[in-house]
Amino acid sequence: MRTVNAYAAPSATGPIGKTTIERRDVGPKDVMIEIAYSGICHSDIHMIRGDWGPIQYPLVVGHEIVGTVSEIGSEVTKYQVGDHVGVGCMVNSCGECEYCERGDEQYCVKGNTQTYNGIDPVDGTITQGGYSQAIVVTEDFVVRVPENLAFDKAAPLLCAGVSLYSPLRHWQAGPGKKVAIVGLGGLGHMGVKIAAALGADVTVFSQTTSKREDSLRFGATAHYATADPENFTQLANSFDLIINTVSAKIDMGAFLGLLKVDGTLVNVGAPAEPLEVPAFALIPSRRSWAGSSIGGIRETQEMLDFCAEHGIVPETELISADDIDNAYERVLKSDVRYRFVIDAATFA
Length: 348
Description:
Blueprint (H helix, E strand, L loop, with lengths): L1 E7 L8 E7 L6 E10 L2 H7 L16 E8 L11 E4 L2 E3 L5 H4 L11 E2 L19 E5 L4 E2 L6 H4 L5 H11 L7 E5 L5 H10 L3 E6 L5 H7 L3 E4 L4 H5 L4 E6 L7 H5 L2 E9 L20 E4 L5 H14 L5 E4 L4 H9 L6 E5 L5
Parallel strand pairs: 10-11, 10-13, 11-12, 13-14, 14-15, 16-17
Antiparallel strand pairs: 1-2, 3-4, 3-8, 3-17, 4-5, 5-9, 6-7
């Protein structure tokens, strides 16, 4: 066992505070990673506050992790000490079901092991995440960070990047496809960059037009305010694919009306309250409403390589561990452009 410094939530409402946690000994197939940077995801806040189910406190969150391999198990073949690597939202799965076997571990029938607030199949403990100095993960759930990706910028790609890359690839965003991204936040801005790099014609829907210049700079061809109902009339039946990144209730009927025949609206944002979907927003044009999680390990590596090839990185603000609570408040107020990253050196 190794004791490391970490920052944990003591309760659903208490401030994030410094503590220590135990990391298991490195097993034959394990990799120990000295964490360099850990991204802040809105999911961290949802999880701490119990929006998605019961939590065992204290909890160390963080599932956008990059760092350097410091120790490997005797049977590890994929990594060497000194490699730049990353860990995303999951650290294990059954490895035997049809989805794991095809590389979609995120949809494991038995449920993948989440990076935090999961049950570690190795020792039965509650998993603790990346707001810490180090982490031990089985090599099959570690990905390689390309050398030409800035290390701190790579962290948010492990969740925000792959959460948009996966549905864009699955629903075949590319040349000749009109794609709309709803919400220009930590997820949405990555969706714009990736969809544009895939060759799609990209439109952004945001509450106002205040981020229009950013949308165009990231690769969108248009930006519309959702506060103006005329935009929904003007753009009805326009899009092949809509990715909704907003973790709040929206008018699903209005957004479904923007789809062409056979178009699909995909939810990656996960509001705590149910969304209402009018049947007649779907039926007359054979539209679909779908959901999408993160990507599997193979797809996450593909996404990192794609971003490295196309020079795609998130817009980030680097903070220290002492700024986490303030960063959370700013996330809730949408006062960040566009992703916070914690310098893990400040966990010491």
